[in-house]
Amino acid sequence: MVTILKDYDIIVIGTGSVMEIVTAMEQENPNVKIAVIDKDEPGGICLTRGCIPSKILLYPAELIRKIETARDFGISVEIGSIDFRAVMERMRALISVDINGMRRGLTHTKNLDYYKDVAQFVAPYTLKVGKETIKSEMIFLCTGSRPAIPPIEGLENVKYHTSDSILKLDTLPKSIAVIGGGYIAAEYGHFFSAMGSVVTIIGRNRQFIPEEEPEVSALAKRELQKHVTVMTNHEVRSVEKTAGGKKKLVAINKQTGKEVEISADEILVASGREPNTDMLRPEKAGIKTDERGWIITNEYLETSQPYVWALGDADGRYLFKHVANHEALVVYYNAVQKKGIKVDYHAVPHAVFTDPEIASVGLKEKEAVEKYGKSNLLIGIQRYEDTAKGLAMGVKDYFVKVVLESTTLRILGAHIIGPQASVLIQEIINLMYTPTQSAEPLIEGMHIHPSLSEVVQRALNFRMSVDQYHHMMEHYGLLAE
Ligand SMILES: Cc1cc2nc3c(=O)[nH]c(=O)nc-3n(C[C@H](O)[C@H](O)[C@H](O)COP(=O)(O)OP(=O)(O)OC[C@H]3O[C@@H](n4cnc5c(N)ncnc54)[C@H](O)[C@@H]3O)c2cc1C
Questions:
Q1: Structure pTM?
Q2: β 126-129/463-464 pair status
Q3: Which residue among 243, 337, 445, 477 is least enclosed by CB atoms within 10 Å?
Q4: 5 φ, ψ to 5°?
Q5: Which of 344, 305, 27, 323 is nearest to 140 (CA)?
Q6: How large is the average pLDDT for residues 284-303?
């Protein structure tokens, strides 16, 4: 058999964040010959099975929880029924518009060859895609990540879902057990409980959503527990089908060793993400990975093989879409425009769209103490309910916490739990991208009264030492467990 070797100016794997670079390159030079490869639907994880479909589902969940509070404000309202299939179909219909648009773009662009297949390195700068072998002196690896499946006895013998397959559901499970206690578990646990499922989240870590500040996690657990059973410090050891068609999970309390049985109609495995490099075979191309398989890059995002760049989840650093977008820009500047720009992670934000919403940026208190020393820090704190808008909304205990360097008022990190946390944190994030990173513009700038943004400004006006902060939180009854 004759192997056809096709040569490209650039080969791109993945159709998510890296497409920003492809579009920019096509605009600059329509003659550039590009190969784009993705084994899955075009649009990448964010559009097809990550951020966007999950947030489309979470919006009706948020509405349900809001409507349920109406009676606190003297409004009598009842939710008649929830059409779960309609909720799911709306999500699928909305994302398919963009997926189809992406597909059209990929199949109708001059000088761009789109391969819907697995790409595998066979030699440096050379990949096998389906029956073809393709080559380029510049390659962008945006291979993303996939759900990690923990080695639980019996799990392979039962039907379980991941955040990929859950999007295909049409019937609401009466009950669902979520294996994992991170942000995907917190978001989907909230979604299914709002839709009407009985939800049990089983997290291995002592802390629910372990990436957050301990007091934020504790409050999130307390609040979500009003609708969901949240087990922490429990490891699922076995899963089996029962005669009644349900699934029985056995979890062990890691502290006491006590076994607990959980019965559910469906299981969602949400216990982390792993790289896709097993199918890529980077080792055949001189591209180094770490012990878990994430692609190693330098601070310019170049891999160990010159002119091969990696970005997004593939490098295993911060698995967020906005980080992937930033990295795509850095790769564009460095690979295409030869600028030599370093990737910047000094203020990486994220949000967890659970109930209540959480948002965070920069250093956590413990990290700041380790880096700068307790005596060099101040913590700003304010509860929503201590502002006019928070009072009007009838919310309780939600708060804004800002970690600052004491002499300069440089913002080191911020953590918010409560309504619109992901929006409120943005003015802090923006200041963290100014030359001084000082909180002063936020302290001095007028904030519309009575808007929720006042809670952020007031947190910065209400500054105290780390120890005073802990006393204050104790007084509020908001310390971590
Ligand atoms: C349920 C869920 C919710 C999320 N919510 C958020 C959120 O709210 N906010 C946020 O910032 N982030 C969120 N994320 C994370 C976000 O989706 C990812 O960080 C982001 O989409 C990664 O994009 P990427 O550009 O690195 O990869 P993408 O380009 O999006 O994906 C890589 C693609 O490459 C394909 N591929 C991999 N290897 C090969 C190969 N060898 N051959 C062919 N194709 C291959 C993969 O199948 C995949 O389609 C969420 C993720 C999940 C799973």
A1: 0.96
A2: unpaired
A3: 243
A4: -105, 120
A5: 305
A6: 98
